[in-house]
Amino acid sequence: MISNNDFGTPLDLASLNIDKLALKFQQDKVRTTTGYIQPLHDTQMQVIHSKARFKVLACGRRWGKSILCSLISSAALFQPGRRIWIVAPDYSLTEKVFREIYHIFVTQLKLVTPAGKDGSRASFQKGEYIIRTPWGSTIEGKSADNLDSLVGESIDLLIFDESALETNLEQVWNQMLRPTLVDRQGSAIFISTPRGANYFYKLFLLGKGYDKSWESFQFTSYDNPYIPKTEIDEAYRNATMMGQVINFKQEYLADFEAVVNRVFPPLRDTAGKFGEVPHIIDLPFKKDDGDIFIGCDFNYARPASTLYAQVNQFGDVYIFDEDFEKNTGAYRQALLIREKIMFYKAKYREVIGDISGNQVNPVDGRTSFEDMKAVLGHSLKGKKQTRQVGSDMIRLWLEYPVFNKVTSLVEKNQDGSPKNYPKLFISKKCVNLIYALQTATFKKGKDKSILKEDYDEHPDGYEGLIDALRYILVYLFHDPNQHASLMAGF
Description:
Layout: H1 4-7, H2 18-27, H3 42-48, E1 54-59, H4 65-77, E2 83-88, H5 91-108, E3 121-125, E4 128-132, E5 138-143, E6 157-161, H6 169-177, E7 187-192, H7 199-206, E8 214-219, H8 229-241, H9 245-253, E9 280-281, E10 291-297, E11 304-311, E12 317-325, H10 330-344, E13 350-353, H11 368-376, H12 387-398, E14 400-401, E15 420-421, E16 424-427, H13 431-439, E17 442-444, E18 450-455, H14 463-477
Helix pairs in contact: 4-5, 7-13, 8-9, 10-11, 12-14
């Protein structure tokens, strides 16, 4: 296997002076297919100065994502011996960015000729998008619907344009594209206008979490100073008149929340409109802040889900960690619990599981409860429940109503909406649980009607995390009476 040294140093995007390249192109009057290149604006500068290896950009229309990708690719292509891929869900989308790079290097600067005698090469034909420079660098345009073309290469930079439109993004990234970055310790940029809470959204959450190799950015069309704000305002007015505000929020404001059929309220990572504290918090775990409870959903063919919750004296629940492991039986799941508890140097009160885990497996004659007891040394707890009850509990803890102490009626905000506060908090490191709650959709009946009491199965098993959460909440708090006596604490 070729070593990293044979490839040279890993590509560092933050050191490529992409802003200076843009200024140089402006001075030399280098054009794209749509006009002269302009200096990078402030939000584009934030992206190029990021030192994260993996970047996720959720951008509104006309923010400048295509030209930014073109400039980043150009700066990398100017270095010797680099390999760069532009990938999109299909070739028509790949063409958008590749066309600009081809125009710069072949048409404008004439640094590469379609059949150069110096070893260079350039092709701009569907299925064969390639520029090979005389100094040994190559950029290719790829399509995610041609999986065979994504195998076997080692690359320095991957730019996945319109990522949110790729319905199979998780598989394409993890199985096809991620391995291409290993040998050269390459970087990746995912860029798109949001399309609801799909896998692109999960990647976005990774960039908002604890992993410093990822960083996410969210910019609206208003953030591009080269676009007249009046044009965007006019688009908003038209969208309002046509009843398409959700579409406007998605296309121009890069809003992930512009989706319908959501089971649970949106999770906030900042203060709400009326000062409500966020659900997603960056709060370090402190073992003295409350008792620890662990919720488990058992599985093997689908991922096994484990949540680590801390509950304070006010009944607030803080999910401070998670396990979400494929091909994991109950025995292995218990080993992971023991390992994580040792990491936190803490003790837990109970492990709460799906009571169906107490049923005998006809294959080996054992139960999930028995397998976990063999590792943990104690029995598990659980309470019979339905998804309707569990979903209601999750919604209640996400938006707990504020009751007037005198009238016992729910108090109202200035706009007349019910006043509430969260009693469920989630660490930003729990990317899978956040993704599960944000993408859960109502289960539909045979006549396609929505069954409000249930959430649908996720193709990749993320509903198991929601199950683990409801096992904890129902076991600890479910009471057919009101919960009005509880107070906010975290």
